[in-house]
């Protein structure tokens, strides 16, 4: 083999090779120098920059969401709590074939096309590789178990727990408590972004909205080291969040339940107040809805159901305005006495119809529609317990709308006097100025006549009616309606200071007079037709009643009803044109513990339908086994001995 | 730099000493300086690998096993006389090309490319990996038959020898390996003394062909890699993620590094492929610039020793082969570190002797075995 080389210029060849090798070695050195320069650039010149960047990747300051405060009723019954909810998460990088994973999931749990669509949207929007993307929320125990058993078929899929608002009473308190739901774009603009970092739900309605600040608490922070998968490896530092305050409401869930049951199949609203404090004992609007639907993000189908045009379950009837009908009469009666326009003894002859001077329009008493007659000779007391319209028509012509307005305003009509129910309507309390402002028309005398029996423009909410009733029970002492009873389960009761001046009558005995007149509405019986209280047959004459109650019925015509229906028999009137039934009451007369306003949508009979409902509500609050609860028993007269004891 | 040169000089003087009095090492056909360099690189590599695999002892043990296997192969290859390599080179080449064709026909596909061959009873292997050694061997054997510098027709044949397996590999598709096969063969041609005029014209032609290559040949993912190389921030969470993360790892390491097992970037999974192609980022993060200089010195020593072996070789075949193997080894080092530090586009080249992977280590050790054979089998007639 070597002999082949003998012909070559070996020395020359070696030299050539070596020169090339040296060039190669030089290139190697130059390129190594390039590498070193590059590394030095990254590791010395840019060290600071990359150091910070490295820390940014792994050190995360993340908010720790405070637990939302719980809501209790006055008896300590839980109305809103935080429940662990389980969410199915997927990490794309670990899951591999996502379609296949979803196929497996579909066979294990319920996964609607809507869920999948939302999942893909979220997947597209995710910012960091290896981050978890929710697939479905609110897994059931069975679904969690199914996933756990099949975990080996589901790489990159996990179940995570988080706290979610839950309303254990469901529909019962929905309108009063409201609900929380995802923060909207609009809310985000005004929100304290720092405190809500990490919070994704906010109170949307009712107590949840009004006391959002109290319930939310203060955000905490955690400095954590995360890996690229977003898994927390280590917690470096932590500032605990301050949990939201628990709050206790004045609501009584037992009473609320009783009120809902008392309404039966009717739609309507009921408000019950504690005259001593103004605390709202019950606030019912029927039909109601399940607030839990909103927490998890309501589905289209569910939302459509809630927007039913007749049922309108989202509409809060307790805070909506309706014609008060005759329930306005006790307040106007007080105005007549206090202004001196009428004495208690003043009488009016009621033939069943009434005409204004210089007008051909005939106003009828409600009795006219039943037997073409009136109440004959009527004084103020009878005008209340027999609900005589003619007496008030006559009074109205003397009083005028502005006097009526000013007096009723003192009782909270035409304004929202509540402490923490801002969503309540202010109703309508008309006067000349109001009509000119809203309609650009002067006031007509006939409109005063309508206003005197709570018809026409006048509208009030059940909350306003309950408040005004409470004021008669309190003899003019103002207590503003409030839902919040105390902060913290064991905290002291909050005394909501009333900013509204108490109503002072020239003759304070007029309070007693009106209270007795209202008691007669309920208790004056066995006097024969046209001498009984309008509510007596329905409220008292049905069973034993161990306390006295004062009340007033109201039957309000529904605007837009064709006139000829008035003459036809009741059952022939379509439901949507039937009168609304109202009733206001407080009890016991001697020492009022509860004031109630009942509104029954298309209930027709103020005394016959709304009256018994009011009694059921008051019974539920005052009675236990048919007897007054011990705490409502009249205080025994102080004995000589005890008064002598220091 | 001075320390590196000192080190290299020391190393070579040891070699000279050994040469003077034939020692047990020479009789065992072992080049002690090269062996020492390899052992140091491999030990350092294992240490880094332990950290890069998140202290996974099983992985490190497997790698250690491959290293031992690699040493056995190297010792075995070193025993073979150089002349024998010349004789079997064509047959190895024909066999290798046959296997490449077999891969295309029956290969196992992984990640969208057919690279693996699965013979019953044999471990899975990539024929293209073997070709990285066989191609320079064959080209060197061919060119060493004639006198240097080679004639034009010889260059043409040499280009065909390297072109066929490179093309077969490229259509697997595995452009990275194809390029490395081509580079290994090209080094032989360059070292054989081809005229510069020819080299530069080829270079010009190549540059002119780039637009055509871009339009007609490169697959989308390859274009993507080049896009990403030019502007990694363009897609920080997609294709640019790796390179941003590796640069961050390297940069945050600083001069002295964060210490062994303390590399956050890699240990917190931010660095993908931290134990394979991107292992140098782990090293740079944990040992800093100092550690990188140390690694580069070790590599430089190994490469220097290989070049020295080439310079001392007794025949053209040995020279061309040794020089080509040394330079190819350097290309691996450069491309890998350059890629991880953002100097060259991402090409799937592991860091030689350090990255996790048995095939790579064993085939590299075959090359070093050949080098030792070149150095220790002195033809007595020459």
Quick structural overview:
With 646 residues, chain A is an alpha+beta fold. Chain A contains 25 helices and 24 strands.
- Principal-axes geometry of chain A comes out as elongated
Give the number of DSSP strands of chain B. 2
Average pLDDT level of chain A: 86
How would you describe the oligomerization state of the chains in this entry?
heterodimer
Low-confidence stretches of chain A: 1-6, 640-646
Report strand order across the widest sheet of chain B: 1-2
Radius of gyration of chain A: 37 Å
Strand residues, percent of chain A = 15-25%
Mean pLDDT of chain B: 83
- Please outline the major beta sheet of chain B: 2 strands, antiparallel
Rg of chain B is 21 Å
Helical amount among residues of chain A, as a percent range?
A: 25-40%
- What string, H for helix and E for strand, traces the elements of chain B in order? HHHHHEEHHHHHHHHHH
Main beta-sheet annotation of chain A: 6 strands, mixed
Question: What is the strand and helix layout of this fold?
Answer:
The complex is a heterodimer of chains A (646) and B (382).
Chain A (H helix, E strand, L loop, with lengths): L9 H36 L1 H12 E6 L6 E2 L5 E14 H4 L2 H11 L4 H13 L6 E5 L4 H9 L7 E10 L7 H4 L2 E3 L2 H6 L10 E3 L2 H5 L1 H5 E2 L1 E7 L5 E8 L2 E2 L3 E3 L3 H11 L4 E6 L6 E7 L5 H4 L4 H7 L22 H11 L7 E4 L2 E3 L6 E3 L3 H4 L4 E4 H6 L3 H11 L1 H10 L21 H8 L5 H7 L10 H12 L10 E4 L21 H15 L12 H4 L10 E7 L23 E8 L6 E7 L5 H17 E2 L2 E2 L11 H5 L2
Parallel strand pairs in A: 2-12
Antiparallel strand pairs in A: 1-9, 2-3, 3-4, 3-5, 6-7, 8-11, 9-10, 12-19, 13-14, 13-22, 15-18, 16-17, 20-21, 21-22, 23-24
Chain B lengths: L1 H19 L3 H4 L4 H21 L4 H23 L2 H25 L1 E3 L2 E4 L10 H19 L6 H19 L4 H17 L4 H22 L2 H11 L10 H13 L10 H4 L11 H34 L3 H25 L17 H19 L6
Antiparallel strand pairs in B: 1-2
Can you walk me through this structure?
Chain A has 646 residues and is α+β, with helices and mostly antiparallel strands. Chain A is built from 25 helices and 24 strands. In chain A, strands 2, 3, 4, 5, 12 and 19 form a 6-stranded mixed sheet that branches. In chain A, strand 9 and strand 10 form a beta hairpin. In chain A, helix 11 packs antiparallel against helix 24 and helix 17 crosses helix 20. Chain A starts with 9 loop residues before the first helix and ends with a helix. Chain B starts with a helix and ends in a 6-residue tail after the last helix. Chain B has a two-stranded antiparallel sheet with strand order 1-2. With 382 residues, chain B is mainly α. In chain B, 72% of the residues lie in helices and 2% in strands. Chain B is globular. In chain B, strand 1 and strand 2 form a beta hairpin. Chain B has 15 helices and 2 strands. The chains are: A alpha+beta (646), B mainly alpha (382). At the A-B interface, helix 1 and helix 2 of A face helix 8, helix 11, helix 13 and helix 14 of B.
């Amino acid at each position: 083999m070597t002999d082949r080389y003998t012909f070559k210029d070996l020395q020359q060849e070696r030299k050539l090779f070596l020169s090339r090798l040296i060039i190669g070695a030089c290139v190697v050195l130059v390129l190594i120098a390039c590498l070193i320069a590059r590394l030095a650039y990254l590791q010395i010149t840019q060290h600071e920059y990359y150091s910070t960047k490295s820390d940014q990747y792994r050190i995360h300051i993340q908010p720790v969401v405070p637990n939302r405060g719980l809501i209790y009723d006055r008896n300590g019954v839980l109305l809103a709590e935080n429940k662990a909810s389980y969410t199915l998460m997927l990490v794309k990088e670990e899951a591999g074939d996502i379609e296949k994973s979803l196929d497996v999931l579909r066979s294990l749990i319920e996964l609607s096309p809507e869920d999948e669509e939302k999942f893909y949207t979220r997947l597209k929007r995710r910012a960091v590789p290896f981050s978890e993307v929710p697939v479905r929320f609110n897994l059931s125990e069975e679904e969690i178990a199914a996933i756990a058993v099949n975990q080996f078929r589901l790489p990159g899929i996990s179940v995570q727990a988080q706290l979610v608002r839950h309303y254990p009473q469901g529909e019962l308190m929905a309108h009063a408590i409201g609900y929380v739901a995802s923060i909207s774009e609009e809310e985000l603009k005004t929100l304290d972004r720092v405190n809500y970092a990490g919070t994704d739900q906010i109170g949307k309605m009712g107590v949840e909205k009004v006391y959002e600040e109290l319930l939310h608490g203060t955000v905490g922070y955690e400095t954590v080291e995360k890996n690229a998968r977003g898994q927390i490896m280590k917690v470096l530092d932590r500032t605990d969040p301050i949990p939201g305050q628990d709050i206790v409401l004045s609501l009584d869930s037992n009473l609320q339940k009783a009120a809902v049951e008392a309404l039966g199949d009717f739609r309507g609203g009921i408000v019950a107040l504690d005259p001593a404090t103004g605390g709202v004992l019950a606030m019912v609007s029927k039909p109601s809805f399940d607030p839990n639907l909103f927490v998890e993000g309501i589905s289209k189908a569910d939302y459509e159901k809630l927007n039913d045009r007749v049922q309108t379950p989202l509409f809060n009837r307790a805070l909506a305005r309706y014609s008060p009908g005759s329930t306005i009469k006790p307040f106007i009666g007080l105005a007549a006495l206090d202004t001196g326009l009428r004495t208690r003894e003043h009488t009016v002859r009621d033939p069943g119809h009434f005409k204004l001077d210089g007008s051909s329009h005939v106003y009828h008493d409600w009795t006219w529609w039943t037997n073409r007659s009136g109440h004959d000779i009527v004084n103020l007391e009878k005008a209340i317990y027999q609900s005589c319209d003619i007496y008030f028509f006559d009074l109205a012509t003397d009083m005028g709308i502005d006097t009526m307005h000013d007096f009723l305003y003192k009782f909270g009509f035409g304004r929202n006097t509540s402490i923490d129910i801002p969503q309540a309507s202010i109703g309508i309390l008309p006067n000349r100025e109001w009509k000119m402002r809203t309609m650009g028309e002067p006031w007509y005398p006939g409109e005063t006549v309508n206003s005197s029996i709570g018809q026409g423009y006048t509208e009030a909410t059940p909350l306003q009616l309950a408040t005004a009733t409470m004021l008669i029970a309190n003899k003019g002492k103002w207590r503003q309606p409030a839902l919040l009873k105390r902060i913290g389960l064991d905290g002291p009761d909050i005394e909501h200071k009333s900013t509204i001046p108490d109503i002072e009558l020239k003759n304070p005995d007029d309070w007693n007079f009106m209270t007795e007149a209202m008691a007669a509405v309920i208790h004056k019986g066995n006097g024969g037709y046209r001498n009984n209280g309008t509510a007596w047959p329905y409220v008292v004459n049905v069973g034993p009643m161990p306390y006295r109650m004062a009340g007033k019925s109201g039957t309000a015509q529904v605007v837009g009803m064709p006139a000829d229906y008035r003459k036809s028999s009741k059952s022939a009137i379509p439901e949507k044109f039937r009168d609304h039934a109202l009733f206001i009451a407080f009890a016991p007369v001697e020492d009022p513990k509860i004031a109630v306003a009942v509104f029954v949508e298309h209930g027709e009979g103020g005394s016959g339908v709304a009256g018994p409902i009011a009694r059921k509500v008051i019974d539920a609050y005052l009675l236990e086994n048919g007897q007054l609860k011990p705490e409502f028993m009249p205080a025994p007269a102080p004995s000589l001995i005890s008064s002598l004891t220091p | 730099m001075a320390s590196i040169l000192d080190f290299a000089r020391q190393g070579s003087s040891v070699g000279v000493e050994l040469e003077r009095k034939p020692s047990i090492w020479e009789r065992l056909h072992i080049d002690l300086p090269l062996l020492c360099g390899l052992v140091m690189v491999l030990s350092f590599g294992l240490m880094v690998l332990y950290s890069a695999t998140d202290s996974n002892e099983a992985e490190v043990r497997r790698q250690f096993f491959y290293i031992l296997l690699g040493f056995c192969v190297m010792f075995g290859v070193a025993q073979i006389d150089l002349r024998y390599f010349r004789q079997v080179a064509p047959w190895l080449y024909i066999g290798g090309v046959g296997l490449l064709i077999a891969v295309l026909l029956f290969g196992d596909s992984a990640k969208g490319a057919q690279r693996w061959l699965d013979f019953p009873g044999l471990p899975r292997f990539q024929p293209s990996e073997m070709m990285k050694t066989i191609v320079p061997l064959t080209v060197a054997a061919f060119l060493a038959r004639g006198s240097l510098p080679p004639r034009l027709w010889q260059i043409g044949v040499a280009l065909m020898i390297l072109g066929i397996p490179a093309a077969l590999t490229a259509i697997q598709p595995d452009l990275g390996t194809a390029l490395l096969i081509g580079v290994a063969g090209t080094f032989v041609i360059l070292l054989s003394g081809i005229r510069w005029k020819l080299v530069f014209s080829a270079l010009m032609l190549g540059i002119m062909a780039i637009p055509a290559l871009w339009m007609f040949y490169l697959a989308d993912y390859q274009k993507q890699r080049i896009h990403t190389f030019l502007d990694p921030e363009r897609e920080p969470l997609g294709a640019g993620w790796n390179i941003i993360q590796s640069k961050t790892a390297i940069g945050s390491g600083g001069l002295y590094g964060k210490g062994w097992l303390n590399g956050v970037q890699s240990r917190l999974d931010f660095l993908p492929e931290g134990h394979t192609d991107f292992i140098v980022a782990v090293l740079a993060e944990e040992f800093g610039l100092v550690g990188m200089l140390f690694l580069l010195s070790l590599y430089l020593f190994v490469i220097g020793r290989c070049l020295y072996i080439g310079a001392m070789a007794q025949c053209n075949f040995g020279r061309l082969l040794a020089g080509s193997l040394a330079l190819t080894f350097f290309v691996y080092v450069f491309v890998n570190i350059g890629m991880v530090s953002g100097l060259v586009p991402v090409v799937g080249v592991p860091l030689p002797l350090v990255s996790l992977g048995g095939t790579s280590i064993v085939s590299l050790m075959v090359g070093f075995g050949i080098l030792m054979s070149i150095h220790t089998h002195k033809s007595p007639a020459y």
